[in-house]
Amino acid sequence: MSGLLGWVKGHLVVVICTVVVLVSLPLGFVFSSKMNASIRTSAEKDGNEQLRQIQNARVSYVIPSLAPGEPPVELARQAPNAALTAWVKEQRDRRSAEAAGVMRRAIEFNRRDHRPIVEGLFPTPPQNQTQELRLKNELLNRLTGNPVANQRSVYEDLFAEVGGGAPPAPEQVFERVRDVEERERERLLADSPTGQLTAEQQTRLAEQLTNRRIGEYQRRAREISFYADMSSLDRTGFEKRSSLLPPPRLDQTQGGAPPHVAEFFQWQWDYWLVRDLLSAVERANTAPDGDRLDVEHSVVKRVEKISVEMLPIFGDERPPRLAASGAGGVPLDPSVSLTGRVTSDGNKMYDVRRAKMTVIVSAERLPVFLDALTQTNMITVLGVTLGEVDVWEDLNRGYFYGREPVVRAEVELETLWLRAWMSALMPNYVRQRLGVEQIAEPD
C-alpha cells in the first residue's frame, strides 16, 4: 500500500489529470445534452414561426385590363402557389402581347393610307431656303391647283376618286335642250298648214323639253355616286376657327410670302380629315357586292358642305390645361362635347379634330351613313340635325336625287388622331404648341 501511495505522490500530476478526465466525461455529457435540448427547442420555435408565416402568407395576383373601362382581373389574398404564379404570368404576358397587337391595329386603322402629299417638308423642312420654298410651293399647288400649269387640286382628284361630281353645267343642258327644241319646232312647223304651232303642240313641246332637261340631269346622276365638288369645301362652319379649305394660293397670301411650315402641316392634316369623311360617303354608297351605287340608288345623294375646325396653335391659342385622369387615362372635358374628348396638355395619346358635314341623304337609310363614318376611321358622331329638302328647287338646279324621300342632315363630328404615328410628322412648332411627346410605335 505504501508503494502505491509513493507512486501516486511521485506521479501526482498524472493522477490529477486522470481524475479530471474521468469526472468531466459524464458531466460534459450531461451539460451538452441540456445545451442541445435548449438549442433544439429554440431552433424548432424559430422554424415553426417561419413556417407559420409562410403558411399564412397571402399575395394578390392581378391581370391588367386592356381597355380603360374594363376592370382588371384580381385574385386577392391567395396563398403563394407555383402553378398559379406561372399561370398568372402567362396571362399577363398574353395580355401585354394583345395590348401591343391592339395598339398596332389601332395605329394602322387610324393612319390608313395617309401620307404626306409632298415628301421632305415634314417634320423638318430642308435647311436650304430655296429647297424649302420649292417644297412649299409644290404642296400649295397640289392643294389649291394651278390653272397656269393646268394642274388640278388633289381635292378635285379626291372627289372624282370617291365617286363625287358636280351636276351638269347649265350651259351644256341649255345647248342640248335648245337643239331638241329647234329640231322639233321645225318638224312641227313643216306639217302645219298655218305655219304656226297650235296651243296643244306648244304644250307637248314644252313637256318634251322639260323631260329632256330632266333626262340630262338623270344621265349625269348615273355617271356619279353623289354630288360634291370644290364648292362643297366650306370655310365658315366654325366661324373664325374654321380651317381654310382649300388653303389660299401663294398669290393670295399676305405679301405673297409662303406661310410657316406649321400652317402647311395643318393644311395637309385637313386634307387627310376630308379624305376620311368622303371615304365614309363612298363606303355608304357601295353595295354589298362591291359595286358603287349611282345617285338615284345611293345613300348619300349630295355633300353640300364640309368644314373643319383649325388647330388650337396659332396666335394666342393654346390647348386647355387638363390633368391626366387615372393610370394611362386621358383628361376629359364634358363641357366641350358629349364625349368630353379634347386636345389638352394632359392628353398624351391623341389629338381631336372636329368637323361638320351637311349632306342630302336617304331619309330611311341615314343610319347606314352614320355607321360608315365610324367604320372608316376614329370618327364619332356628336350630333345630327335634320331638315327638309326642296327637291323640286334642287332639281331645277340640276340635282336629281331619285324617287325615295331625302332629308338634309347637318352632322357634327369628332375625329381622333393617334400621336403614336402623327407625332413623327409634326413640325417642332406644332409639337411644342400641342405639348406632344414623340411616342414610339409598338413593335
Give an overview of the whole structure.
- The structure is a single chain.
- The protein has 443 residues and is an alpha+beta fold.
- It folds into three domains: 44-65 and 74-96, no CATH class; 112-149 and 232-434, no CATH class; 164-223, no CATH class.
- The chain has twelve helices and eight strands.
- The chain has helices spanning 2-10, 12-56, 82-111, 129-144, 154-161, 170-190, 199-223, 261-284, 366-376, 391-396, 419-422, 428-434; strands spanning 59-63, 73-78, 164-165, 226-227, 300-308, 350-362, 379-387, 406-418.
- The strands form three sheets. A four-stranded antiparallel sheet has the order 5-6-8-7. The protein has a two-stranded antiparallel sheet with strand order 1-2. The chain has a two-stranded parallel ribbon with strand order 3-4.
- Helix 6 (170-190) runs antiparallel to helix 7 (199-223).
- The longest helix has 45 residues, at 12-56.
